[in-house]
């Protein structure tokens, strides 16, 4: 399988190149040249398969030519080592909990799979791959956990001093081994600028094999298709049409769902749920793609004004009418989101995070417009404790850190304090 650039200004590349490079030189995004359908017997047998078995079959369908079966199976089993349970709130409303990984959000799926696949591709190389990642909290922890102990790869996380929560900080400063955390005396933008400058520095790039764990790497997208199959498996009444509701920011999650559908999963509709950053719902209604500066909301992982995966969606559909047939879009305010968190708690005794709440609202709107006789599945993208400061006051109840994560709070922080001056960062890297 080759991977082409959505901009088509560079020739298609191998999986290895797509994964290690991240981005094509023409600044498009990599896409698989074709998306084969899975065989009928796979779907007939779905309910007898474990999540890992399903994930392997889906991965092999796309990557089976490029990674030998045994290696691919090991990669998948290593990456997908936590469940994605479907919780039914009612006969029509289901929640797909994607937060059972190490950092309590769905990004663990993508980060872990990308880490394993990169590790596989560099396994015989003599130069260590040095991954630099700037974070305002979440990306850094998912990437750090994903790459922890992957041979041949080191990760350096840069984060702004005093600007991430204690729990977040513990997630990437307590790991040790191949993960180093730099506590930068500056802002998130400073951290990002340091990373960018490192990639442009000749001396550094000659000495070190630098890489970024880019969020638009194709290796992060593919594993996100796995859990659409796992969700469908868990639906009891499969007679009704399946509608996936995806709380969206950069639209990677939704794009992965489109891949799952192209592989044959019987998905009737997608619902793109956004906060005030309603670029895609606006595109679906008006036909005009109009990126804007992002607006800050309480569902802040979706505060994106120019969704990076829109290029992949546009590439898959080619025209807006085709996209409209498969995707409906709805957007909601913070006030509505807060009300929805209360409603879900009162009606179903379920604690939903602000991103999931936006999805819940979109499902209600969709049902109001197109009818209720469906299986509506809302992707719950994060554990509510990650947003406890908005969730707890709204529902009048503390949200507890899951038992399995409490040990982190006891662990000692190990980070290297550093100025936001590039020369300091460079000196640190040159010593590697
Ligand atoms: C990243 C993220 C999203 C948005 O996902 P995209 O794939 O960028 O659309 C939604 N919710 C949470 C909690 C996230 O971390």
UniProtKB/TrEMBL annotation:
<dbReference type="InterPro" id="IPR001926">
    <property type="entry name" value="TrpB-like_PALP"/>
</dbReference>
<keyword id="KW-0791">Threonine biosynthesis</keyword>
<dbReference type="GO" id="GO:0030170">
    <property type="term" value="F:pyridoxal phosphate binding"/>
</dbReference>
<dbReference type="InterPro" id="IPR037158">
    <property type="entry name" value="Thr_synth_N_sf"/>
</dbReference>
<keyword id="KW-0028">Amino-acid biosynthesis</keyword>
<dbReference type="InterPro" id="IPR051166">
    <property type="entry name" value="Threonine_Synthase"/>
</dbReference>
<dbReference type="GO" id="GO:0004795">
    <property type="term" value="F:threonine synthase activity"/>
</dbReference>
<comment type="similarity">
    <text>Belongs to the threonine synthase family.</text>
</comment>
<dbReference type="InterPro" id="IPR036052">
    <property type="entry name" value="TrpB-like_PALP_sf"/>
</dbReference>
<keyword id="KW-0663">Pyridoxal phosphate</keyword>
<dbReference type="InterPro" id="IPR029144">
    <property type="entry name" value="Thr_synth_N"/>
</dbReference>
<keyword id="KW-0456">Lyase</keyword>
<protein>
    <recommendedName>
        <fullName>Threonine synthase</fullName>
        <ecNumber>4.2.3.1</ecNumber>
    </recommendedName>
</protein>
<feature type="domain" description="Threonine synthase N-terminal">
    <location>
        <begin position="2"/>
        <end position="79"/>
    </location>
</feature>
<dbReference type="InterPro" id="IPR004450">
    <property type="entry name" value="Thr_synthase-like"/>
</dbReference>
<dbReference type="InterPro" id="IPR000634">
    <property type="entry name" value="Ser/Thr_deHydtase_PyrdxlP-BS"/>
</dbReference>
<comment type="pathway">
    <text>Amino-acid biosynthesis; L-threonine biosynthesis; L-threonine from L-aspartate: step 5/5.</text>
</comment>
<dbReference type="Pfam" id="PF14821">
    <property type="entry name" value="Thr_synth_N"/>
</dbReference>
<feature type="domain" description="Tryptophan synthase beta chain-like PALP">
    <location>
        <begin position="93"/>
        <end position="373"/>
    </location>
</feature>
<feature type="modified residue" description="N6-(pyridoxal phosphate)lysine">
    <location>
        <position position="107"/>
    </location>
</feature>
<dbReference type="GO" id="GO:0009088">
    <property type="term" value="P:threonine biosynthetic process"/>
</dbReference>
<dbReference type="Pfam" id="PF00291">
    <property type="entry name" value="PALP"/>
</dbReference>
């Amino acid at each position: 399988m080759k991977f082409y650039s959505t901009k088509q200004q560079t020739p298609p590349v191998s999986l290895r190149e797509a994964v290690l490079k991240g981005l094509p030189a023409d600044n498009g995004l990599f896409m698989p040249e074709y998306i084969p359908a899975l065989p009928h017997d796979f779907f007939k047998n779905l309910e007898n398969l474990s999540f890992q078995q399903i994930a392997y079959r889906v991965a092999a369908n796309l990557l089976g030519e490029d990674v030998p079966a045994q290696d691919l199976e090991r990669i998948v089993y290593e990456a997908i080592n936590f469940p994605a349970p479907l919780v039914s709130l009612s006969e029509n409303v289901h929640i797909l909990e994607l937060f059972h990984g190490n950092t309590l959000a769905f990004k663990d799926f993508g980060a872990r799979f990308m880490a394993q696949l990169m590790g596989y591709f560099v396994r015989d190389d003599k130069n260590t791959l040095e991954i630099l990642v700037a974070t305002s909290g979440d990306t850094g922890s998912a990437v750090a956990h994903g790459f922890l102990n992957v041979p041949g790869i080191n990760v350096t996380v840069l984060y702004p001093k005093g600007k991430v929560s204690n729990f977040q900080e513990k997630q990437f400063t307590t790991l040790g081994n191949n993960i180093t955390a730099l506590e930068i005396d500056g802002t998130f933008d400073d951290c990002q600028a340091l990373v960018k400058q490192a990639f442009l520095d000749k001396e550094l790039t000659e000495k070190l094999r630098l890489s970024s764990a880019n969020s638009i790497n194709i290796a992060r997208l593919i594993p996100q298709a796995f859990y659409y199959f796992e969700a469908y498996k868990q639906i009891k009444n499969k007679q009704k049409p399946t509608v996936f509701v995806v709380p969206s920011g950069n639209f990677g999650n939704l794009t992965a769902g489109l891949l799952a559908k192209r592989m044959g999963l019987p998905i009737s509709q997608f619902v793109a749920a956004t906060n005030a950053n309603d670029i895609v719902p606006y595109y679906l209604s008006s036909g005009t793609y109009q990126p804007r500066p992002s607006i800050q909301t309480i569902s802040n992982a979706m505060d994106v004004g120019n969704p990076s995966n829109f290029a992949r969606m546009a590439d898959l559909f080619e025209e807006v009418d085709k996209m409209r047939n498969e995707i409906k879009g709805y957007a909601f305010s913070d006030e509505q989101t807060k009300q929805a968190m209360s409603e879900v708690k009162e009606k179903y005794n379920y604690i939903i995070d602000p991103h999931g709440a936006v999805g819940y609202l979109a499902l209600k709107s969709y049902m109001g417009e197109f009818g209720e006789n469906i299986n509506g599945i809302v992707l719950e993208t994060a554990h509510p404790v990650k947003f406890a400061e908005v969730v707890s006051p709204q529902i009048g109840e503390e949200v507890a850190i899951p038992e399995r994560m409490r040990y982190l709070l006891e662990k000692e922080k190990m980070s290297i304090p550093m100025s936001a001056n590039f020369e300091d960062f460079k000196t640190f890297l040159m010593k590697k």
